[in-house]
C-alpha cells in the first residue's frame, strides 16, 4: 500500500464510489443521495482551489483503497489553525490498516502545514472509526445528541480532536 496525492482524473470515480457506498450503507456520511460526477468535480475543484490535501491509499496495482482530506472547521478567521478531517475506506478493505495509514499521513501533512487542531466528527455508532481516532491520539471533545436522522433513526455525533504543534508564531489576521 502507498499513500499518494489524490488526482481527480485518476482517482475521481473511485473516490465517488467510496463516498456513494458510505452514503448508501452507513452513517459515516449524513447524506441521503449519491454524489454525481458533477458534485465530485466541484468537490475536487474546491479542494484544489483552497490548497487542501486529498490523500489516497492505493494497492500495488494502483487501485484506490481509501482516501482522506480536510476542510475548514468553521468559516471564521480565528479558526484558521483548526481543520475538520474525514477518512473513508473502501468497504472490502476496512479493518486492514488502510484508515490508520491514511489518517497518519494526514496528521503528518497537518504538522507540516502548521495546523494546530484537527477535529473529527464521527457518528457515535461507528465503533471502528472511534477506535481509530483514539488509537491515533485523538480525544473525545463532546457529543451532539440526535443531530442527524438517517435509516429511520436519530444519530448522535461525537467530536474528537487532536492538538498538534501548530505554528511557532500564530498571529491574528
Protein model, in words:
- The chain starts with a strand and ends in a 10-residue tail after the last strand.
- It contains 4 helices and 7 strands, in the order E-H-H-E-E-E-H-E-H-E-E.
- A 7-stranded mixed beta sheet has the order 1-2-3-4-5-7-6, sandwiched between helices.
- Helix 1 (8-25) packs across helix 2.
- A hairpin with a 2-residue loop joins strand 6 (139-150) and strand 7.
- By secondary structure, it is of the alpha+beta class.
Per-chain topology:
Blueprint: E1 2-5, H1 8-25, H2 37-50, E2 54-58, E3 64-72, E4 82-89, H3 98-112, E5 117-123, H4 127-135, E6 139-150, E7 153-163
Parallel strand pairs: 4-5
Antiparallel strand pairs: 1-2, 2-3, 3-4, 5-7, 6-7
Key words describing this protein structure:
single chain; 173 residues; alpha+beta; 7 strands
Structural class: alpha+beta
Order of helices and strands: EHHEEEHEHEE
User: Beta-strand percentage?
Assistant: 25-35%
- Per DSSP, the total helix count is 4
Residue ranges: pLDDT <50 for 5 or more in a row?
none
Largest beta sheet, briefly?
A: 7 strands, mixed
Biggest sheet: strands side by side, in what order? 1-2-3-4-5-7-6
What can be said about this structure in brief?
Helix content is 32%, strand content 32%.
